[in-house]
Amino acid sequence: MPTDQHEDSVEPTGDVEMSETQNTQETAPEATQEGEENENADNTELPFADSEIAEPRVTFANYLMSPIVTLLIGSGDQSILSAHQGLLTQSPYFKDICDSLVEDGSPRQIELPDYDIETVGSFLEYLYTGEYFPKKLPGQRVLETDPSVPSVDNSGDQLLKHARIYTLAEKFGVAGLKGLSSSKIHCVNSTAKGEIAYARYVYAYTSNDDTTIRAPVASFWATRSHTLRAEAEEEFKALCLEHPQFGYDVLTRVLDDKLKRERNDKMHPATSSGRKRARHSSGSRAD
């Protein structure tokens, strides 16, 4: 009958629509759940995952537990000093050497034929303590008293002590010791002959572009040569002939100072005075 046929034709369509709706409803939660799982998976990384992990601090005890290295100092009748490798390798120079030593249980030895025991001893003292004797007095340009040396350095030995440490620190790549020794040089009270011995060493064992130590030497003599030269005329002449760069550096600063004074006199003629300042023969670097 027409009615039966109509009902038969409608019912299947309704069943199909319900099926599709149910499938959609059932699929939607699954898709949502999968999306949440994926989102959670993306958020599983811990915060600061890309940050570097700080290395554990090396304690002083760690240094003292490192192998002992023997230093053979000088040539011929060598002196012997020992140091912990952990501290010694703070110097790039010694690190390269220690890295090349064979790990076969044999003694770890390094020869230093070009250095004396006092200079190397001060170097090791700095590695272990961060200072070396004599220390600078806090807030002053004065070194602590060393009863074994005179108060005025007439021979240049006190200046040379710090100069040798400076060149050693340069060779071994220890910037802190280099700066410390340079600052102590300016605390030494010396004479003209002591200054000449020091200047000769500086111009013999440092490079031409090392203005840190050479510039103060040249400036010192440029400002005091008119008085100090008279105290050591022959030594000053010999130094200029032996190291022409020294004479050139001093002369350059003398002429530069003269030019500055002339310019200052032209700019401020009223402030210039014809009265000369008293000249002193002191060679102190603390002036």
TrEMBL record:
Stretches of Basic residues bias are at 274-287
Looking up InterPro entries in the UniProt record yields: BTB/POZ_dom (IPR000210), SKP1/BTB/POZ_sf (IPR011333)
Q: Where is this region: Disordered?
A: 1-48, 261-287
Q: Which Pfam families match?
A: BTB (PF00651)
Q: Which CDD domains match?
A: BTB_POZ_ZBTB_KLHL-like
Q: Where does the record place Acidic residues bias?
A: 33-42
* SUPFAM superfamilies in the record: POZ domain
Q: Where is the BTB domain positioned along the sequence?
A: 69-136
The protein, known as: BTB domain-containing protein
